[in-house]
Amino acid sequence: MALPAIEREGDARFGRPHASSARDRRTMNSSILLIPSIRRKGGLGHLVRMMRIALSWKGTACLFLEPGDPLHWTEEEVRSFFPEFPWDRHLERNPGVHRWDWVVFDRRSTSRAEYLRLQFGSHTLGLDEGGEARPLFSFLVDTFPRLKRKDEPNRVEPRFVPLLEPHALESSPQKRPFLLAFGGEDPYGLSELASEALVKEGIEPEDIDVLLGPARQKPFSKPCGEILRGGWDAGRHFSRYRWVVTSFGLTPYEAILSGATPLLVNPTGYHERLAQRAHFYSLGVRRVSPRRLRFALEHPDVVLPRWASGLNTPIPNVAPSSGLTASFVEYLSTLQPDIPPRCPLCGKDHQRATFRFHDRSFFECLSCKTEFRIYFGGQKKAYTARYFLEEYRQQYGKTYVEDFQKIKDEGKKRLQVLKECLSTVGTISRGLPVKNYGPFDRGSEGYGSRGAYDAGGQELLRKKTILDAGCALGPFLDAAREEGMVPYGIDLSEDAVRYVGEKLGIPARVADIEDFDSIEAFGVESFDVVSLWYVIEHLPRVGRVLERVRAMLRKGGWLMFSTPNGRGVSSLRSPRSFREQSPIDHVTIWNVSQARRILRRYGFLVRAVRIPSHHPERFPPLARALIGSKGCALLERLLYLGDTFEVYAQKIDHDSRGRASADSCH
Question: In angstroms, what CA-CA distances link 243 with 252, 258, 392?
Fold first, then answer.
């Protein structure tokens, strides 16, 4: 879906970027907190994966082993399992006192309460995370298959599972036949069970080596070849073997990467279903099927998963800071969030994911219901002279300068709506419907019978001060000046501000609306009108900006803005596609009812809403056939179904009984 042409003027480049994207560096040099599962009888694979990430990370990487749960391994036990690991450098006991760029969860199934306790106000990444906390993560990566297609992740990549680099593996010209490797604990004794099955099929015990995990309590009780002790880098042994008999988890993936063929004996039906989803060859659940074992030994090439040959190929990084990545660690280093992990409006970190894509996640704030996104590409659009000429032409077929008059004419329509608001605000009482304008309304075109449009209508705006934030090359400022207003503009683009000042002769400054000082910039203490045309959706701290705008408006002053409509016909028809095609620098998604509610909270009363463009072709074919183009236009206006909308809101005060009151600025 192409955005309506009216959004051409939307520059909306206000608000300082989040610190992690402002720094010209890779997040691999930053700090991450790794929280693995250390649940007893839950295996050590989650812990091992986090340990390997810590060793590969080039910045600060610490593990947090949450204490106090009798169902978890203690810190002392974990350290005894892996004494060679540099714990002094990679263990954090008080993570809450530090700021982390990322908190990475690898706990299989994190509860909501656990998540809220462990996120520490940071961006969070869930690695194969399920459970009720799954929708809460900033970013989700699934390396293992999922049994339920719920809460889709940002990235699905089986090649992120094996965290051993091929060069770290031991090579052996003479491969031994079998290695039994059933994880750190093997609580179900699957090593003995698999050994018995192999011997029954005629395999000599001395051809069967056994890798015992560090948490296994009892010795191996069957005749065998060599007994190896596993640690966090146990996968280095796999390249010495033709077959690795194991359970679903990290091991079968690393076996394939090492050139071995995995055969699975799973401890539970859950592991069995995961193995089937990943197309691993399974011999059974807590038993070995002689028939399946016999078939595997006779047809070793057949039992390899179809995707096995691609496991050690370079991984394309589909994030905007792209390239080829060799591992999950390198991929994580490219993820650079552009805003903090909290609502841009109310500032609460209490949100739930609604849609996820490879480069961003959309959330609904559970406190104020604002929908917003976090973008992980780390790149910001630069609005230089190139944008207003070449890039703008590529998108719209003409340069911004060539499109100046059309945008200016649209600005005149907006000013006519403001005039009608000024002429009728005294008759609008609280509780009555606001005025709705469609693209073909008489008022929106600038003619009609009301006093706002007669010869004296211009007096309503004469000498009123107006600040246009995100003014671009100034077409709206030029229209306001022709109406007798006193215009001022601010923009983050130096080229735009220079054009407004030199070509139009209108005062303009390079400034950020969030901390804009009007006295310092223009010698003006307050304004009658502030406009934000296609700006508000770009603001990373929109709540702070609304407070700032209210403070710089005179009593009864006006805020006008336009924005894409999160409940327009395109979004309602295909909500996922609408968000996927949304520009990456759009932080929030607005709708009319939300705007009315939010503005009231910040001291504004919506007086008029305008739907600036009409697109019947975006309605379903059946609707177009039944009600026609004019019917679609009527629905767009009455039900606010346009893909963009404009809001005209007045600054209000509250009396002692909490009722809204406003004095118009005319």
Answer: 10, 11, 59
| Tens-digit pLDDT profile for residues 113-164 | 999 999 999 999 999 998 899 999 999 999 998 888 778 999 998 888 766 5
Burial of 580 (0-12, 13-18, 19+ CB in 10 A): middle
The shares of helix, strand and coil residues in the chain, as percent rounded to the nearest 5, are 35, 20, 40
pLDDT digits (tens, 9 = 90+) for 437-451: 655 444 443 333 344
Long-range Cβ contact pairs of 449-458 (< 8 A, separation 24 or more):
450/420, 450/423, 450/424, 451/423, 452/416, 452/419, 452/420, 452/422, 452/423, 452/424, 453/416, 453/419, 453/420, 457/419, 457/423, 458/483, 458/484
Q: What is the rounded CA–CA span in Å between residue 159 and residue 317?
A: 12
User: Which strands, in side-by-side order, build the sheet including 360-365?
Assistant: 351-357, 360-365, 371-375, 588-589
CA distance 546 to 344: 11
Domain boundaries, the chain: 18-162+316-375, 166-310, 412-426+436-661
Rounded Cα–Cα distance for residues 243 and 109 (Å): 31
Q: Which CATH class is domain 412-426+436-661?
A: alpha beta
374 Cα distance to chain centroid: 4
- Class of 18-162+316-375 per CATH? alpha beta
Q: Is 424 helix (H, G, I), strand (E, B) or coil?
A: helix
Q: pTM of the entire structure?
A: 0.85
166-310: CATH, from 3.20.20.70, 3.40.50.2000, 3.40.190.150, 2.60.40.10: 3.40.50.2000
